[in-house]
């Protein structure tokens, strides 16, 4: 792949978990080796659904930033910035609102789904309807053409391309149509066996300390066939085994699978192996986090804001000329 401009974002809604690592951050770290990457903490997007309870957003910004830095997003390579500090985004958003048909926004599946799911708040708002347009602006204002996202965002990217096409038709071929770079959907279960999700309170966080990992893994339910130590199990039916898939070596997985079926390993020992491997995996993250916690990370963010703002300014100037405004 030639050098591209990569753009992606995450909402600051709480600690990142290992699903975020598998499903996004791992690719983000990889992409920064070859491309110019823009990674945005999209606090306006958080506000679209959390406006009724926005007091946590600020604290979550710093937390998310630390999560990113700890997994190896390198602020010397990637431009890491805060969406709401780039005021140019709002102007471009406004200009694009003139050409974006309401019907396109109303058609977005997440618009209807989220309104049903988050029914404790009113999402019949202008801002929430505009969510995918704001996302489009995030991408194009830094001239992003590769967008690492999960499957659930594909519709947003299709919409972004349609909107870009419309702009280009009116005002001249200026923006690239952004392409999604699909990241794998993590198959990690949470510690209760359900899908790992913040809303289920069953996550393993990137920032968890070694003791926390132990506290979370030890009481996990295992295959219910293994009531006694001598009862053989079926590892495929065990969420602990599912986590081994991500953190243990092929060799270990093979051994555990065999030993579980033969009842020659107990669940406690099996979990001990997982705890050790998870901690070995998280240790480099912890080290980096500690290093960054001593620095002023908000200064790092401010540096990124400056760089992103420069790019955004240039885009906006050129757009104003094209639109003749
Ligand atoms: N909508 C994305 C999500 O929920 C977050 C997001 C906002 C984003 N702006 C973006 C992702 C720009 C990629 C590019 O995950
Ligand atoms: Fe799960 Fe391991 Fe127990 Fe088998 S031995 S049931 S894989 S925890």
Please outline the helices and strands.
Layout: E1 5-10, H1 18-31, E2 36-41, H2 43-50, H3 57-71, E3 79-82, H4 88-97, H5 102-106, H6 109-117, H7 126-129, H8 131-141, E4 146-149, H9 154-171, E5 179-182, H10 210-217, H11 239-247, H12 250-262, H13 267-294, H14 297-323
Parallel strand pairs: 1-2, 2-3, 4-5
Helix pairs in contact: 3-13, 4-8, 4-14, 8-9, 10-13, 11-13
The structure holds tryptophan and iron/sulfur cluster (SF4).
Tryptophan (TRP) binds at residues 7-9, 11, 42, 45, 135, 138-139, 147, 149, 153.
Q: How many domains is the backbone divided into?
A: 2
**Low-pLDDT segments:** none
Briefly note the CATH topology name of the largest domain: Rossmann fold
Molecular shape: elongated
Main sheet strand line-up: 1-2-3
**Helix content range:** 55-70%
Q: Give the total of beta strands.
A: 5
- The whole-number mean of residue pLDDT values reads 96
**Distance between the terminal alpha carbons, to the nearest Å?**
37 Å
What is the CA-based Rg, rounded?
22 Å
By secondary-structure content and strand pairing, the structural class works out as mainly alpha
* Largest pleated sheet: 3 strands, parallel
CATH class of the largest domain: Alpha Beta
The CATH fourth-level homologous superfamily of the largest domain = HUPs
Heteromolecules bound: tryptophan, iron/sulfur cluster
What percentage of the residues does DSSP assign to strands (E)? 5-15%
CATH architecture group name of the largest domain: 3-Layer(aba) Sandwich
